[in-house]
Design a protein that fits this description.
Blueprint (H helix, E strand, L loop, with lengths): L1 H5 L2 H19 L2 H5 L7 H20 L5 H22 L7 H24 L3 H11 L9 H19 L4 H6 L18
Helix pairs in contact: 2-4, 2-5, 4-5, 4-6, 4-8, 5-6, 6-7, 7-8
Length: 189
């Protein structure tokens, strides 16, 4: 059903905008910041957005066409949003391309690291990557424990998305678990 609409420009654009909006909403869930330690800063919000987009793209790679086209359109929409955000923050026209290049490198580097950890079901590697990238705690003594809740959330989100098909992702949006449910994942009893 979606494939028929996906061939039309306006319908295609609306589907991508809706998917992008739903991912944005998930990346701004208050519990990510209050319960899982994502910093409520420009950088923290960028990291949360990247994380959720990466999880959706990860699922789309496993789906048949036109999922690859949807994935590319989603990436384009995300980077257009980031470009606009940089301009709103006052970055000049000459500085935007340089910053976008850095953001792109950061995005794809994170995607590679998160995918490798999730593919290997290596929670230690996932915690380390999340502590470094999202929580900004590279080398911190308690980084592993503090990243455990976020890592458990990411793993559960990846598993939840495994059951999604392209129609479901586009019609109802990606289903992410409630971040608050992972608040105490790193606490030893």
């Amino acid at each position: 059903m979606i494939a028929r609409f996906f061939r039309r420009g306006d319908a295609r654009r609306r589907l991508i905008e809706t998917l992008h909006l739903r991912i944005n909403e998930a990346s701004r869930a208050p519990a990510l910041y209050t319960d899982l330690g994502v910093p409520d800063t420009v950088e923290g919000r960028f990291e949360a957005l990247c994380l959720h987009v990466i999880l959706v793209l990860r699922r789309m790679r496993a789906l048949p066409d036109p999922a690859a086209d949807v994935a590319q359109d989603l990436v384009n929409a995300v980077f257009l949003q980031l470009d606009a955000a940089l301009r709103e923050l006052g970055v000049g026209d000459f500085g935007v391309p340089k910053r976008m290049k850095k953001l792109g490198a950061a995005f794809y580097g994170r995607a590679e690291g998160y995918d490798a950890a999730l593919d290997a079901d290596d929670m230690a590697a996932l915690r380390a990557a999340l502590a470094r990238n999202v929580l900004g705690q590279d080398g911190a003594v308690h980084a592993d424990a503090e990243a455990a809740g976020l890592a458990a959330y990411v793993r559960a989100a990846a598993q939840a998305l495994e059951g999604s098909d392209l129609d479901g992702l586009l019609e109802t949006g990606p289903r992410f678990p409630e971040p608050a449910a992972f608040r105490n994942a790193g606490v030893s009893v």
